[in-house]
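A reminder before we start the practical. When you read a complex entry, don't treat the lines as separate problems. The point of joint prediction is that each chain is placed relative to the others, so the output describes one connected object in space. Small molecules and nucleic acid strands, if listed, are placed in the same frame. In the example below there are two entries. Take a minute to note the order of the lines before looking further.
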Amino acid sequence: MTPLLQIKDLSIQFRTDEATVNAINGVNLTVPAGGAVAIVGESGSGKSTVMMAAPRLLPGNAVVHGEIWFDGRDLMTLNEKQMRSLRGREIGVIFQNPTAYLNPTKTIGQQIVEPLLYHHIASAKRAKEEAIDLLDQVGIGDPRGRFDMYPFEFSGGMLQRVMIAMALIASPKLLIADEPTTALDVTVQAEILMLLKKLQRERGMALVFVTHDLAVAAQLCDEVYVMYGGMVMEHLPVPQLVRASKHPYLRGLIQSIPPLDGPVEPLPYIPGNPISTTRPLPAGCIFAERCAAKMSVCEKRPPLIDFDQQHQVACWLAEKGGIA
Amino acid sequence: MPEAVLSVSRQALVELRGVKKTFSTSRGELIACENINMTIEKGRSFGLVGESGSGKSTVMRVLQLLLPATEGQIWMNGVNVSGLPPRKLKSYRRNVQFVAQDPFGSLFPHFSVGKNIAEPLKIHKVGGKAEQLERTLDLMESVGLAPDLYSKFPHELSGGQQQRVAIARALALSPQLLVLDEAVASLDVSIQAQILNLLQEMKTRMGLTYAFVSHNLAAVRLLCEDIAVMYLGRIVEAGPSSEIFKNPSHPYTKALFQAIPAFIGDEVKPLPTTPIARRDRPSAINRPSGCAFHTRCPLATDVCKSVAPEWTELTPGHHVACHHADEAQRHL
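Here is the predicted structure of the whole assembly.
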């Protein structure tokens, strides 16, 4: 598949009065057209930062280097006006907390049609019909009546459906979903995930799903990038996630998920705390201080090593065929 | 500890009898929970699961006497504590301590780690300065905090370390019961495993009893011997967790299991095929008649709409309130 989004050698720093945060330290990633890609990491791993860089939604103190190719254009070189014509039309975004992104003083109908009106895609009348149709598709009962209601009249799960409708109304080629289900109940989460998967397939739209939950990523996506300390530690297809993952960090993460079956016993866990990106990074492997398989070669930082087709690992162990 | 030893010495620590809590709102009376009967036994841990709005946190607040119950009683060690005047509650509060979901929000930001942990000792006037210091350092060691963190402030710590401070503070007065309200929910996966292991290990080491509120069934399974599942303010299924995990019998419990994203062996659990969240979820103000779950239940029949199901015992200790529990076990 041809790549729709290609991020090359991306590095992002945030300059604050106190410190420089090395949020992203050389990330390469590719999203194929129509594919579903998950970016997984713990808090502070840079998973959201890397994806917010694509629609250029980072705060003003971000210093961004690298290339972000989207559909044949390097987004880094576009001016703000060109970017604005892209956002909402070609790239849709949904966030974790819908209440923070919806205007409480406008009806949800007014907000859903906005992308269509802003980009002059449809007349007000047609926009309303499309919005009602889409509200129905995302599972909102009585869409015509709900069109004129305000955000406070909806539950969290319903608002997330509204956000999805808003992000999809202009039929974007790429949907970026940043932890859209984290604040929801598991039953509602399951429905939103099913909905996203269905819409993504039907529309042939590319999806980037940012999450801290490996199981959610695996349920929804075709391939996974695992991030730590602003770098990609491993990239592999979902069917191989548990079976063939190589990086000790990813192995540790998988093992530390409490299981639903089998004996009840203490969980294997990764010792220590996630690396802080506010301090200068070590010269060697950034995971070495927490790694049980640390070797002397880890004093040198491993590159992303091609382990297999579609499978890269940033660990020296991958060179020797991986850990047992 | 072998199961036999536990079952011989099984003894109720805290008991809720017919607890009901209502709130009056502009839209009418909200029944946050009702008919709550549960027993937390000494040395066993009790897990309360359910969706947001199911009333599980309200039950825990009533249990801690932070909210007065509208109806019903709370017993601890054979004493009805719900009838006691506030000034006599200090000893109850000492025995029941609390760890909240957001570790940073629950610590005093302007207190050092040491001062945060020692605060309960000061309030309850336990020992002199030197003893309090010693106790604080002991507590820090037992939750895995290095002594050099003593004079750090909460904002200088990671989320996992903050939660360890909160746990140490909750343990300062050697309580019998620790209420953990979503205590691992906001932590990263690798840190969550560390804290779950710590809780599990402390339970055995100190003979603690936990009341663990969570939407994460896998974490509950790890920590709790007994489980109750709540839906819209009522307990719909309860029993030993081994039994409930093996044989979930309420359609709602089943739905919760199906919705959890997890790996089983090498494969990811597929997304559920029969969603129950559906379009409209009922609220506690407009509680549906009969069985409150009938609006979302795939097995609902006419009887569910009009008659509230009785509480039936399936196997010893395993109770369920459903007209179609047999069918749910077999088909869902």
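Discuss with your neighbour: Residues 3-90+172-259+267-320 of chain A form a domain with the Rossmann fold fold (CATH 3.40.50.300). What might explain this?
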